[in-house]
Design a protein that fits this description.
The complex is a heterodimer of chains A (588) and B (112). Chain A is α/β, with parallel strands linked by helices and 588 residues long. Chain A has 19 helices and 25 strands. In chain A, the strands form 5 sheets. A 9-stranded mixed sheet of chain A has the order 5-4-7-8-3-9-10-11-12, sandwiched between helices. Chain A has a 9-stranded mixed sheet with strand order 17-16-18-19-15-20-21-22-23, with helices on both faces. A two-stranded antiparallel ribbon of chain A has the order 1-2. Chain B has a domain at 20-65 and 79-104: 3-Layer(aba) Sandwich (Glutaredoxin). Chain B has 4 helices and 4 strands; from the N terminus they run H-E-H-E-H-E-E-H.
Amino acid sequence: MNKAKTGRSATHPALPKAATGIEGLDEITGGGLPRGRPTLICGSAGCGKTLLAIEFLVRGATQFEEPGVFMAFEETAEELAQNVRSLGFDLDQLAAENKLLLDYVHVERSEIEETGEYDLEGLFIRLGHAIDSLGAKRVVLDTIETLFGGLGDTAVLRAELRRLFRWLKDKGVTAIITGERGEGTLTRQGLEEYVSDCVIVLDHRVSEQYSTRRLRIVKYRGSLHGTNEYPFLIDENGISVLPITSVGLRQVVSNERISTGIPRLDAMLGGKGLYRGSSVLISGTAGTGKTSLAAHVANASCLRGERCLYFAFEESDSQITRNMRSIGLNLAAWFKKGLLHLHATRPSAYGLEMHLATVHKLVNEFEPRMVIVDPITTFLGTSSSAETEAMLMRLLDFLKSRQITAVLTGLVHSGSAAEGSQAGISSLIDTWLLLRDIELGGERNRGLHLLKSRGMAHSNQVREFLLTDHGVELKDVYIGPEGVLTGSMRLAQEAREHAASLDRQQQFERRQRELERKRLALEAQMAALRAQFEAEADELKLLVAQEQTAANSERESKASMARSRQADEPAEGLGTRPRPTRPQRARK
Amino acid sequence: MKRDPKPPEPLDQLTGPANVDEWNLRLYVAGKSSKSVAAFENLSKLCEEHLAGKYHIEVVDLLVHPQLAKGDQIVAIPTLVRKLPEPIRRVIGDLSNVERTLVGLQLRPLQK
C-alpha cells in the first residue's frame, strides 16, 4: 500500500485515492485517481491516452504493489509492449512477474453474426478472471468504444457498459477507461454519462507550429482538484504533468547568502552576495558579457560543491565551454564532476510548455541548487509575450518554491530602454543586474549597474565590467566633470590624474626646499650680524683696555715723575684714589 | 490462379455443407441463464435439421472455465464458434433467428 495515500486519507477521509505515480498528476488531483472507481480519460487520437493508462498500471505494479489488468481493444499485447518499451516499461517482464496482465480483446464485425439476444457476460467473465488471477487493484479498458464498431446492438452495448462500470465499482478496482473524443461530446459514445466520478481530458494542440500536450480535469466528484489546463510531456521516462503552483506566495525564504564568484560584485551586493533561492536577472545588449557573468555565478556554485543546471538556448555546450575557457573558467571539469549540467536546446525545438516541462523534469532529476536560463528572451520569438511572461512566472515560482537560485539572462535590444523591455518579469526578479555598453572615445566598454536588489543595502554605483583571461573584473569608473569615463579614456584620465598629483607633489617639495633655503639664508645673515657685533664688541673692549693702559701708564709716569721730584705724596701709591681726577682734569 | 474457368465450384465445396463431413461447434455460455439455455436448444434443433450425423457440439460454461474465454475472443454471451470447418466463424446471440444463424454458419448463402 502506498504510504502517501494512507497518510492523505487520514487527513481527508472523504475520498480514498490511488496514487498514479505519474509525475505531477498526483499533485493536481490531490493524491491520485478515486480509489475503487472508474475514471474516464478522453482525448483525440494520439494525445497519449493509452500511454497514461499504461503508466498508471506500470507505476501501480512497480511502486505501489498494485497489480493491474490492461484490456486492450485496439492493439495487441505485443504491439502495446513494443510501443511502451521505448519509455522504459517492460510489460513482458511485469507479466512474467504476475504484476500485469495484458488481454487483447478482438472484435471483428465481419467474423460475427448476430442472432437474437446476447449480453457482454463473456467480457465480464474474462475481466473478472483476469482480475482474480492477479489480485489486480487496477484495470484499464482501452478503448472500450471499439465494441460499438464490432457489435451492432448499441442499446445492448450501452446497457452493458453501464453494468460494467457498476460492476467495476463493486469489484473495488481503480479503473481507467479511455475514450476517443467525439463531436461536441467528450467521447463518441457519451461514456462520460456512465463514468461520472472523474473525467480527465487530454489535448494535443498546435499553436504557431508548436505543439503542446495538455491535461485538464473536467470533473472529480468529491475532491478538490486543479481546474487549469496543465501541460504534460511524454519522454523516455513516461508522462510528466507540470503542477504549476503559482497559486500562492508562500515560499519560505532563506537568509543564506551566496557568492557570485566576483568579489567586487559581492561587495556591491551588500558585501555578502546573493540570497539563496532568489531570482537574478542579468540583462544587457548583445555582447555585454551576460553569459560570462552567468557562467561565473555557475562556477561559484560548483566551487561550493553545489550542483548547477544550465539551460542554454543559444549556444551549444561545447561552444560555451570553449568560450568560458577564454576567460579562465574551466567548466569542463565541473561537467566531469557532475556538478554542472548543461542542457542546450533550441528555443524553437518545442513549445513553451514543453520547455517548462523540461526544466521541471531536469530539476527533479538533477536536484540543483542553482538554475541558469540563458537567455529567456529567445522565448519571445516563439510565443506571445504574455505567454512567455506567464511561463517565466511559473518557472520562477517553481524554482523559488524549491529554494533554487535562479539566474536568468535577458537580451535587451540596443536602442530600447533597458528598464522597459523586461518590465513583464522585472517585478518577479529579486536582483537585477544591467550590463550596458558605454561608447566613448571610439571604444565600447561594459558597465555594470545594480538596478535593484531586494532585501539588502546595495551599491548604487556603476562599475566597469572587464572580461580578462582570469575572469570577470569590476573596476570603478571615473566619474568627474567630464562624465563617466571607461576603458582607455578611464586609463588616460587616471594617467592625467597621476601626472597632476605628481606635479603637485613636486611643487610642494620645491616650496619646502625654498623655505629651507630662506631659513638658511636668514640664519646666515643672523650669524653675520652676530659676528659683526662680536667684532665691534671686541674692538670696543680693546679700546677700553688701551685707554686703561694709557691711563695707568700716565699715572705711573706721573708717579715716577713725582718720585723723581720727591714729592710728599705717599710712596705706597695707595692714596692715588682721590688724586686721579686731577691729572685727568688736567689733561682735559 | 490458372483455374479461371470454374472458380465458384471449389469455393462452394469448401463452404457448403454437402462436402464437409465434420462440424465441430463450440457454444460458450454462462451458467444456466435463459439466453444460454435458449441458445443450446436452438443450436441442437438446427444441427439435427441440417447437419444430422456429422456435427459435434461442445458447450463451454465460462462460469466454470473462465480462462477459456480469452482463447476464442469471447466478449458476448452466448457465442457459437464454428471451429471446423475452417475458417472460424462466430455467431452471437441466442440463435433464435434461424435464417441468420444459418448464414452465420455459412450453411446458406447470404442472398437467400
